[in-house]
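User: Hey, quick favor. My workstation is busy. Could you predict this chain's structure for me?
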Amino acid sequence: MNPLSSVQKVFILLGSLMGASGVLIGAIGAHWLKDILNYWERSSFETGVRYQMYHALALLIVVVLQSIMPSKWLNWAGYLIIGGTVLFSGSLYLLSIRLPFNMPFLSVLGPVTPIGGIGLFAGWALLGVAVLTSWKTR
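Assistant: No problem, here it is.
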């Protein structure tokens, strides 16, 4: 078995932190914020948690694939998954709590959510590119 690269170690670390913080943030939303957020805010908050957890797992899958078929495209996929998750889920969390916590200035983050979504989409697309390019080289 090959030793893990620095990038793989960072992806494992960040994937585990994304997963752990997703559980914590989800618990905060389910317990502490349940009576503070309205239906739409709670739904948006839960979407952020769900996507964070999906992409924590996706980042760990990128590490496994890097071991099987090393590719610069997988590195970029991982970076985009990390950045996209921070922007997408992070903006949803902050937008969800802006009104209940009297922070209307956070509404400027509205355009950040789709930018994060584009990053997530691009990360998944590059995962596919990595597979396609590995077929050509093997």
